[in-house]
Amino acid sequence: MLVTIHLHPNAHKTAIEWLDTDTAKAWVTAAPEKGKANQALIELLASEFNLPKSRVSILRGNTTRIKQVEILKNSV
Question: Which pLDDT tens digit goes with each residue over 26-37?
Answer without folding.
Answer: 999 999 999 999
